[in-house]
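Dear H.,

Thanks for agreeing to be a second pair of eyes. The structure we're designing against is below in token form, covering all 418 positions.
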């Protein structure tokens, strides 16, 4: 029975709006990182998820995540089309919030998660294949992990903790990105991005702002844990941004704005699973470790010559993994009685559970993503032609341009060197 709390409900509507804003933020972030000929192609992959994922979520996604249980892995179709949900239906985690608000909030998570992956294979994948990928990945990777971790599935029953999506969002998206890169292969045409660091900065600002709804909202009510998660989100992002800036400055001899921005996102991704379970001091440690480790993960990717164009694996895959493991070390019930005590607070088995869960999620995401791309390739070509890549996907696939015709960036560069 619903016991409506207008404060909690109003707060969750606000948080839902903040998380929604993260997807346009991601589009700007990714759009600035690519060259001028592929801006719209990468941005539409985020925006189309806002439309298509919502359709899937209404049809069967919410039901598979939060209705029934099949062997602890996935739900059932009892709530398909939101059947039976009415004004008096309470949300699953809190009877003070209407189910409709919880449905909308979780939908925003579903929208941004597959969009994160698109940064890895930018400039290389046909739009038709991306739409099939979006559908299949949500159904066979995202929905099962939402159910397993948050919807009463076996990982939740086992005691695995993930406050706002270290496994459910960042780890599985980042590992899927790596599988996509290894399947699709390298770009034939060198991309001259980032074409607009100011666009990246705008995207980072929107992501950072929206992330307060992502993390603080995951408490599902307004209390002291909500406040801790809010503060921890900012601390981790800030310390990671500075850590990445300093490490990059030391290695590259110049303080790069792009490094500062990327570091902030790495900190945000890494603190996500721990935000409501750890102390502010721990959030500082998580931020510093994220800034340093994710920087070197990106360096390793470059050495391995993986063409993860926008570092989705290094930032989200590694960050999500790191956050889940560090939660296993630093979780502290003093900061959330509903949480757990990690290794440093007397429970080594909790760390073991976290490590097993995130290893399992990594393997599942990699195998299912790689297999899905192979299957999609049987029905429609996944990788664009060399000609299409050379022209740019904005023109060859979408027939649109981000900027007015005339001398583009490449022409100006050549003109300046003649």
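And this is the sequence the design step returned. I haven't edited it by hand at all.
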């Amino acid at each position: 029975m619903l016991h409506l709390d207008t404060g909690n409900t109003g707060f969750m509507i606000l948080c839902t709006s903040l998380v929604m804003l993260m997807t346009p933020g991601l589009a700007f972030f990714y759009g600035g990182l690519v060259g001028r000929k592929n801006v719209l192609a990468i941005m539409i992959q985020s925006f189309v998820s806002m439309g298509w994922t919502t359709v899937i979520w209404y049809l069967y996604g919410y039901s598979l995540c939060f209705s029934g249980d099949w062997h602890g892995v996935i739900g059932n179709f009892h709530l398909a089309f939101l059947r039976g949900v009415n004004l008096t239906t309470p949300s699953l985690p809190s009877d003070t919030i209407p189910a409709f608000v919880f449905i909308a909030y979780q939908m925003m998570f579903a929208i941004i998660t597959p969009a994160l992956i698109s940064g890895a294979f930018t400039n290389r994948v046909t739009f038709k294949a991306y739409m099939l990928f979006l559908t299949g990945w949500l159904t066979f990777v995202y929905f099962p992990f939402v159910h397993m971790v948050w919807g009463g599935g076996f990982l939740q029953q086992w005691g695995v903790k993930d406050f706002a999506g270290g496994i459910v969002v960042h780890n599985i998206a980042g590992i899927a990105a790596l599988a996509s890169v290894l399947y699709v292969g390298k770009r034939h045409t060198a991309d001259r991005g980032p074409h607009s660091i100011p666009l990246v900065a705008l995207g980072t600002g929107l992501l950072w702002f929206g992330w307060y709804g992502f993390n603080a909202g995951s408490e599902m009510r307004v209390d002291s844990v909500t406040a801790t998660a809010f503060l921890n989100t900012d601390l981790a992002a800030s310390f990671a941004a500075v850590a990445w800036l300093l490490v990059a400055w030391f290695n590259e001899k110049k303080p790069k704005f792009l490094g500062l921005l990327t570091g902030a996102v790495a900190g945000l991704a890494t603190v996500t699973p721990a935000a409501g379970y750890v102390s502010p001091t721990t959030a500082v440690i998580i931020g510093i470790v994220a800034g340093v480790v994710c920087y070197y993960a990106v360096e390793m990717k470059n050495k391995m010559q993986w063409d993860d164009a926008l570092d989705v694996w290094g930032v989200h895959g590694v960050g999500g993994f790191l956050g889940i493991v560090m939660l296993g070390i630093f979780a502290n019930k003093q900061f959330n009685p509903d949480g757990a005590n990690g290794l440093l607070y007397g429970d080594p088995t909790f760390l073991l559970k976290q490590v097993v869960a995130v290893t399992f999620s990594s393997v599942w995401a990699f195998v299912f993503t790689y297999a899905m791309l192979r299957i999609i390739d049987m029905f429609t070509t996944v990788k664009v032609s060399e000609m299409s890549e050379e022209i740019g996907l904005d023109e060859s696939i979408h027939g649109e341009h981000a900027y007015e015709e005339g001398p583009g960036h490449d022409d100006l560069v050549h003109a300046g060197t003649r």
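Two observations from my side: Residues 348-379 form the longest helix (32 residues). The two ends are 74 Å apart (CA to CA).

Warmly,
E.
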